[in-house]
Design a protein that fits this description.
The complex is a heterodimer of chains A (221) and B (117). Chain A is α/β, with parallel strands linked by helices. Chain A has one domain: LmbE-like (Rossmann fold, 3-Layer(aba) Sandwich), CATH 3.40.50. Chain A has a seven-stranded mixed beta sheet, sandwiched between helices. In chain A, helix 1 crosses helix 6, helix 2 packs antiparallel against helix 6 and helix 7 packs across helix 8. The longest helix of chain A has 16 residues. Chain A starts with a strand and ends with a strand. Chain B is mainly beta and 117 residues long. Chain B has a single domain, classed as Hypothetical protein YojF (Protein Yojf, Chain: A, Distorted Sandwich). Chain B contains two helices and nine strands. The longest helix of chain B is centred in the N-terminal third of the chain and has 10 residues. Chain B is globular and about 45 Å long. The two termini of chain B are 21 Å apart. The chains are: A alpha/beta (221), B mainly beta (117). Chain A: It comes from Oceanobacillus caeni. Chain A: This is Deacetylase. Chain A: InterPro entries: BshB2, GlcNAc_PI_deacetylase-related, LmbE-like_dom_sf.
Chain lengths: 221, 117
């Protein structure tokens, strides 16, 4: 059993779309989970549907949604205070040291983050790379296992099959609750997939079809 | 935000003329554009808290979508596709253009005090 799991993603809602089922499973087993959330998603373009946020009110709204989602998933939350869309322009080593200071304190047995270069959003790639660097900087015997999540359309062709495949359909309602805690984002993000399928089906069905399995690669140092 | 009312917004941008103001100007089609649609391109740009001064300001449009041009001593600030507006914290003018799903595509914001950073 894991001792403590640390999730490192840049945006409020990455944790819910990407790993809510996995997080919920760990919590059911009694494993503490802490989310280090990089930014407040200040530059997101989804403003709610119908619109209820604007560029200036969005950060506070998303902060509240993040806190609510972490309550749904029953995990600890640390907000790192970086700014949406800018992580790749910061000093990677400095971010790695910042992340390492949390890891040194929490001493997790497992870290979940994005797979650098295969996670589509530049913030995902940059924070994933910094998280992996933070673990690399630790003594090899103290390093937690790292699960890296790839998102790009081609990742399986290039990287092969992910070692970890968590079927989370049994606790899917929890994931849905976490996703919909992000009220300003949920419909816009899921709706995008509806555009793609160009059929009028229920958003929760879309989520279930696309997100019933959460996949991760075990990072090799 | 609410649909742009031309006369009201014109009056407000006139009020910012010949003052030192902070501008937020942005356009985006999202970080996932080409992930979701192979034929799409990811494009976006933003500048936040640019300190500028303009002496001419005009909003033009057809009742649904609007353009704003701000003339500075040495150049222009321009935004197209603005649909909605609001006043934030009593004094900051926010204008934005949203697509049919309510996603922000463009924004132009003007304030005498800086936007949070």
């Amino acid at each position: 059993m894991e001792k403590h799991v640390v999730v490192i993603y840049p945006h409020p809602d990455d944790e819910s779309f990407g790993a809510a089922g996995t997080i919920a499973k760990f919590r059911e087993e009694g494993v503490p989970v802490t989310y280090l959330c990089g930014t407040l998603g200040e530059m997101g373009r989804n403003m709610g549907s119908p619109i209820f946020a604007n560029r200036e009110t969005l950060p506070e709204i998303r902060k509240k949604e993040l806190i609510d989602a972490c309550e749904v998933l029953d995990m600890n939350l640390e907000m790192l205070g970086y700014r949406d869309k800018t992580i790749e322009f910061e000093d990677r080593n400095q971010i790695a040291l910042d992340l390492k200071s949390y890891l040194d304190k929490i001493k997790p047995s497992l870290v979940i983050t994005h797979y650098p270069d295969y996670a589509v959003h530049p913030d995902h790639n940059a924070l994933g790379a910094a998280a992996i660097e933070a673990v690399r900087l630790m003594n090899p015997e103290d390093r937690p296992t790292v699960w890296a999540q790839a998102i790009s359309n081609d990742y399986e062709e290039v990287l092969g099959k992910p070692e970890i495949e968590n079927d989370i359909t049994a606790i899917f309602d929890k994931k849905i609750d976490a996703i919909f805690a992000h009220a300003s984002q949920a419909q816009g993000v899921l709706g995008q997939r509806r555009d793609e399928a160009s059929v009028n089906i229920d958003l929760k069905e879309i989520a279930k079809q696309n997100m019933g399995i959460e996949r991760f690669y075990i990072w090799k140092f | 935000m609410k649909p742009i009312e031309l006369e009201k917004v014109q009056k407000i941008i006139d009020g910012f003329k010949n003052k030192e103001v902070y501008v937020h100007l942005e356009t985006t089609n999202g970080a996932y554009a080409s992930h979701i649609n192979k034929k799409a391109y990811n494009v976006g740009a933003y500048i936040r808290n640019a300190k500028v001064s303009f002496n001419q300001a005009k909003i033009v449009g057809d009742g649904k979508s609007y353009r704003v041009g701000l003339k500075m001593e040495m150049g222009w600030i321009y935004a197209e596709g603005l649909t909605d507006w609001t006043i934030h914290e009593d004094s900051k003018l926010l204008m934005a253009g949203h697509d049919r799903e309510g996603r922000l595509m463009v924004s132009l914001q003007i304030s005498e005090t800086p936007f949070s950073y």
